[in-house]
Each structure stands twice: as C-alpha cells, then as structure tokens.
C-alpha cells in the first residue's frame, strides 16, 4: 500500500524535466512538501508516535522505488535520519536531512563532512561520531561542490561555533550501516530501470534489417547485465531483512559491496548498448547512470566494504560456507559486527 502510494507521488513530482530543473538549482520545496505532507518521512516511526510503524523489510521496496525514479532529494536519507534521531530521543527538525559519510575535525576546530550526498541542497546533516550523533545545520556550513555535472553532493565545513554536542544513542557505525544499506537499495532501483530502458532500446533499434536485440552478442550483454541487477537486488534486500530499525553492519556491508560492484558494470553495459545516444543530455539514461556512479562510492565503494567483509570472515570461527550461510540468513554477528 505504501509503496504504491509513494510511487504515485514520485512519478508525479519527479519527472525527468523536474529532476533536471532541481539539479540545475530549482527549489525542490514543492516536491519535498508533497512527500512530507503525505507522512512519508516517518515510515519507521511507531504508530503511537505518528508514524507508519513499518519494518525494514517493508521499507525496502520503497527505497528501491526512490532509486528507480532517480529522486533528486534526500528522501531515503531523511527517513533513515529520523529513525536514528528517534534512538537518541531527539525530535527531527523539519526539512531535508542527509547522512554524512565522514566526519573529520581539523586542528583549528573546523568540522568537515567530505563529499556528503545531497550536501548541496540538504537543510541538515546527521553525522556519526564514536560519542554519538551530530545534527548539523547545513545553512551554517560552507558548501563546496564536487564540480561533477548534476551532482548534488558537496563537502560541508562548519566553524567551531556551529558544531552541536553529540547525541548519545547511536554512533558512526550505525550511520555507516544505514548509508550502505540505503544506497544499495537505491542502486538496485536505478539499475533495474536502466536495464529496462536498455532492453527496450535494443528491441526498438534496428540494424541490417532486424532488431539489434536479436543478435547473439547483444543478447549476451543483456543477460550479463540482468544477472548483475538481480544479484544487486538480492544483496540489497538482505540488508533490510533484520528486525528493528537499524540495518546490521555485516548484511549492509555485503549489500553495498555487491551493489556497488554491479553499479559500474550495469552503467557501462547500458551505455555500450545504447551507443552515442546514451551519453546525451536530452536522453534520460544519464539521469540514472550518473546516480549509479555517485551511489557506488557513497558511504564506501565495493573496495571499502569487501575488505570489511573479508576481515569479518577472518575473525569468524566458522568456515567460509558457514559464514556465508549465517550472513545470508541475516543472523547478527558477534564482535565488531
């Protein structure tokens, strides 16, 4: 029910033209207010607190839909941030909240959150430290864009007087697990749409008197792309299969490692099969493939998370098969995980 309802709003508010406009600097307030007024920011909050009381497994298809529509506002991040803030007993502020993927104090007391997803437009950033969460007002920060076309990520810098006191109840590990899990789901949604667009193009495009999709070499590339999309989707779903409102670190690591690996391969295959039209500004494919590359590195790429999965395996007393069996059954791991 919730997925269908939010799909309707996303389809209405975030057309390709609207996405391009917001990326170019248009005010996203109208679209954002439509989501906020419908109550979609509190999907994980308990019903007696005015929320929908959804489980993480219920939330997964909604995050996939957000990726499918290339939503240019931090909707998934805001939902996660509100769940994290609830654990600290802090009311979430009105507006767009994003999750910082890093938080670094400098010698002069300046706080830096580098390459923050949606840092260019977010109202607030939730950053994790070992002592708790920092809720930071982006309007008091210096925003430094990435310089990448259409990117809404930015490095944020706060002077000492604008840094809040950490909120106990959650830590940087919780923020990173959420960031990995939600971006895995976004990648799964965007990759599925890229795959559908590519398949349709191959069916419509004719060469030498027949559809290029009928050539065996093209079919092979489509099949490999489909395999990666399916693997990314299954891996992402693992991260949302736990109880409560916090993804487990190991399943989040597995999800992000596999989905990030798939992101670059799906994007490359899509552009290869589309040919020259795929890289043009007017064609919608680039709205999705740019995000696949952006989301691949957000909160750690496959290189980052694969190392952490490997370290967890080496620290485990179980053999490889048993480790994989437990991990894919989403059983909580001991130790640092």
UniProtKB/TrEMBL annotation:
Cofactors that this protein relies on = FAD
From the UniProt record, which GO molecular function terms apply? acyl-CoA dehydrogenase activity; flavin adenine dinucleotide binding
Ranges for domain Acyl-CoA dehydrogenase/oxidase C-terminal come to 178-304
Keywords of this entry: FAD, Flavoprotein, Oxidoreductase
In terms of Gene3D superfamilies, this protein maps to: Acyl-CoA dehydrogenase/oxidase, N-terminal domain, Butyryl-CoA Dehydrogenase, subunit A, domain 3
Q: Which InterPro entries match?
A: AcylCo_DH-like_C, AcylCo_DH/oxidase_C, AcylCoA_DH/ox_N, AcylCoA_DH/ox_N_sf, AcylCoA_DH/oxidase_NM_dom_sf
Show where the Acyl-CoA dehydrogenase/oxidase N-terminal domain sits.
Answer: 1-91
A Pfam family annotated for this UniProt entry: Acyl-CoA_dh_1
| Protein family per UniProt | Belongs to the acyl-CoA dehydrogenase family.
Stated name of the protein: Acyl-CoA dehydrogenase
Q: Which organism is it from?
A: Cupriavidus yeoncheonensis
């Amino acid at each position: 029910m919730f997925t269908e309802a939010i799909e309707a709003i996303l389809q209405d508010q975030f057309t390709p033209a609207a996405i391009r406009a917001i990326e170019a600097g248009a005010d996203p307030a109208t679209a954002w207010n439509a989501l906020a007024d419908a109550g979609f920011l509190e999907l994980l909050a308990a019903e007696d607190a005015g929320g929908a009381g959804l489980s993480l497994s219920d939330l997964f298809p909604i995050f996939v839909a957000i990726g499918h529509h290339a939503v240019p506002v931090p909707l998934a991040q805001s939902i996660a941030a509100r769940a994290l803030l609830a654990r600290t007993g802090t009311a979430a502020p009105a507006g767009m909240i994003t999750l910082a993927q890093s938080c670094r104090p400098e010698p002069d007391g300046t706080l830096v959150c580098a390459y923050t997803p949606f840092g260019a437009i977010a109202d607030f950033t939730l950053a994790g430290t070992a002592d708790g969460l920092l809720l930071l007002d982006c309007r008091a920060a210096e925003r430094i864009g990435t310089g990448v076309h259409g990117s809404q990520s930015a490095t944020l810098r706060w002077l000492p007087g604008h840094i809040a006191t950490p909120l106990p109840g959650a830590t940087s590990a919780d923020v990173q697990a959420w960031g990995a899990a939600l971006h895995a789901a976004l990648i799964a949604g965007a990759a599925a749409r890229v795959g559908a667009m590519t398949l349709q193009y191959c069916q419509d495009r004719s060469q030498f008197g027949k559809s290029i999709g009928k050539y065996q070499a093209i079919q092979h590339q489509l099949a490999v792309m489909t395999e990666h999309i399916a693997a990314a989707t299954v891996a992402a779903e693992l991260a949302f299969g736990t109880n409560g409102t916090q993804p487990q670190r190991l399943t989040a690591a597995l999800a992000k490692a596999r989905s990030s690996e798939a992101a670059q391969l799906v994007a490359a295959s899509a552009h290869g099969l589309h040919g020259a039209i795929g890289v043009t500004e007017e064609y919608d494919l680039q709205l999705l493939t740019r995000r696949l590359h952006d989301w691949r590195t957000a909160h750690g790429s496959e290189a980052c998370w694969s190392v952490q999965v490997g370290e967890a395996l080496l620290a485990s007393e179980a053999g490889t098969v048993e480790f994989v069996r437990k991990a894919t059954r989403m059983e909580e791991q001991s130790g640092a995980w």
